[in-house]
Amino acid sequence: MNRKQRFTLASGLLITALAAITILALAIPAGAAPTAQDLPTPTPYPAENTPYTLEVVGGQDATLTLPTVEQDGFRLGETTAISDYPRGMEFRVTADSDGGAIQDVILFVTLVHGTGNRAVAEWDAEAQDWVARIWETGNMQPAWTPISVYWRVRDAAGNSIDTEPQPVVYADTDREWFRMESEHVVLYWFGFGEDDPDEVAQTMADAMAATHPRRVEGFGRALSYKPVAVIYPDRESLAETVGSGAVSDRFAGITSTAWGMSIQVLRGTNYAPGNENCVWATRPEDWTMERRINTIFSVTTHEVTHLYQFDVLGGSLGPQWWSEGQADWFSLAPGNYDERLRALGPLQDMPSLTGEIGWTRIESDGCYALAYDMGVSFINFLLTNYGGMETHRQIAEQMRLGGSVYDAVEEATGKPFLDVENEWRVYLGFPALTLADIDPASALEPPLDTSIAEGDTLILPSTPFMSPLYEDPGPYVLSNASCFAGTQVTVLRAGSLDGVDYYEVDCMGMTGWMSRDQLIGPE
Description:
By secondary structure, this protein is α+β, with helices and mostly antiparallel strands. Helices cover 26% and strands 25% of the residues. The protein has helices at 13-16, 197-219, 235-242, 289-311, 320-329, 337-344, 370-385, 388-400, 405-413, 417-428, 435-438, 516-520, and strands at 53-58, 63-66, 69-71, 74-76, 79-83, 89-93, 95-97, 102-110, 116-120, 122-124, 129-134, 146-155, 160-162, 166-169, 176-181, 186-189, 228-232, 253-256, 261-265, 457-459, 466-470, 479-484, 488-497, 500-507, 510-515. It has a 6-stranded mixed sheet with strand order 1-15-16-17-19-18. A 5-stranded antiparallel sheet has the order 2-5-6-11-10, with no helix packed on it. The protein is globular and about 85 Å long. The relative contact order is 0.12.
């Protein structure tokens, strides 16, 4: 199928570089309880009284000791680990060797996926030991990050050893937190739910247990590690970890596959920015503490799905509508997505899934996050009509091998993606799309002005100073670059649309579409 795909894969670069990809933990606009939808919604498995443990951690200085080591002629004393969150951790060890004086001591820090960093230890003459420090500047490192550490020690003879990795947790020694652990998640929180922490713990344990079987069935296996969710009660405390950017109302948290963690801030009582006129928005006075706490269960199950996307699929997120819709579909409460999309029908058209949709634009209903609702609605339609979880596993496998979601859907359904998308659009009450709607260049007719042909080179007019290059031919498209006046361009393609000639040109290595008036000036 000659389909033009314009979408951006979410980058995992920051994840592999010991930072975190910022996946905003914003659910779709919350409103009253969703009404019944035509198709069955994703149904969590029954889960009640899921076993968990609950304890209070942090709030006091503590020194963790790791075992002594005798290995290949080296002798290392107990390693002491002291947390000074949010200003990092300090590790100390004594060492000697039969091969002579110790030359190098290096601490290696490993995160859940094997990525990490190292800290060269310095000799402390007063304490007579080696000291290594990590995350001294905060480094966007949240409290309760689980890591493993080991020492590499080299003596004067050139002998060296690596000790066995030992688990360590980056503790917050300034305040007490609740820590819940179940089979499927570790949860930390403070500053809310303190009158009945068991209710928070039990609800989270049940939420993860209820959604876990669907994720395993849909992705083919479970996560290779137990995820950690850390919930800060306000943006000020979250800022300790991520800096002043956390005070922005648009920042809701971070999900990092490098850490294997979801870091969130408890939802406030205010409208989400730009959502003040959203018809589905809950009024600030209706955001009771109970309701705010309840958001963490659906958000956490959503964010854990993002961890699956990296851990199982190797980072094949696909376009945003797929990655976020998928996370919503596997969450505890995917929301009233079909209802919202149907209500948009009389107000505006719905963009194609093959284009860039995004989530920040305010739509005609006063709400944003359209990519979320379109994604979960399409996935629910697709799996309901085309094979359920087996189809999802097939798509996931194709994406793991490097295929696009569009090709994977075509492989799984045996139909062109546009056909499946149109079935879904008609189901929601929107008109079907043509190929020309997706790729306007495919609808071009022969140019009206035959004096300009493909391969011709022309000099752009002297005015305007800059002329935009558009992504597609037509009057209502986005520009992707600009070309200076007087620049030589080469015509790559030519055609007419609605009585106007358009030309795809190469301008100093940049390609895009221009109208005839842009190319040679108005007559």
